[in-house]
Amino acid sequence: MSGGGSGPPDPPHQAEEEEGWLLSFADLVVNMMALFLVLYSLSDPDPGKFETAAQSITKAFTTQENAPPPPTPFQQLVKNMQQELAVEGVEMDAAQAQVNKRGSTFDFKTGDMFAVGQATILTAAEPLLDRVAQNLIFLGVTNYRIDVEGHTDDVPINTAAFPSNWELSSARASAVARFLISRGVKADRITVLGYADTKPKLPNRDQAGNPLPENRAENRRVVIRIER
Q1: CB 16 within 8 A of CB 228
Q2: Whole-angstrom Cα distance, residue 124 to residue 19?
Q3: In principle, which of 10, 63, 104, 188 could form an S-S bond with 143, CB 3.0–4.6 Å?
Q4: How does pLDDT run across 43-59, given as a tens digit for each residue?
Q5: Is 6 domain-assigned?
Q6: Are 219 and 204 in contact (CB under 8 A)?
Q7: Is 111 found in the same domain as 191?
Q8: Residue 1 domain flag
Q9: How far is the C-alpha of 123 from the C-alpha of 133, rounded, in Å?
């Protein structure tokens, strides 16, 4: 299930091209500097000046090659959240937030977001979800999509509201999607997915068939994937 949109999607590489112009400009500046140094050294055949020019060129290229790449917007998003949560004494380790050049993934245990067997977001979980939405908006990322996934353990549920884990996982993912939309995230960027217990992070049971409570707790989760 996903929101509808009226306009065509952004070109898939538009945002990357907009962010990459600085690197191209830096390359041009370094190359121009190297050219002028060479011309200057050749205008006066002084070995000392030529050696100085050569050292300057080597240093310029070495510095450029060894310089760390600028952070992507998604790396900045995770960094911002980690800093904000650290101020409040809340830890967000690598298991909860992962980032690469194409996007970032946030993994939330549903025990921290929902009451047992329910799909209403707990008040205590709203600040963290709010940071995901607001940091994404503040960073100005325009070319992205968001998958909101709901996952459960293998314990069946059979209530009037949720006849199975399929309905529960879908309802929880939908609740998170609605929350993000209420904070300004565009609905046409979001896809909602309910997986029930079909994609566990860890085995729900051991080889003898005995339940593993800690693993089940890890498998009950909502995953937010933000990608270009």
Answers
A1: yes
A2: 36
A3: 10
A4: 655 556 556 656 665 66
A5: no
A6: yes
A7: yes
A8: no
A9: 16
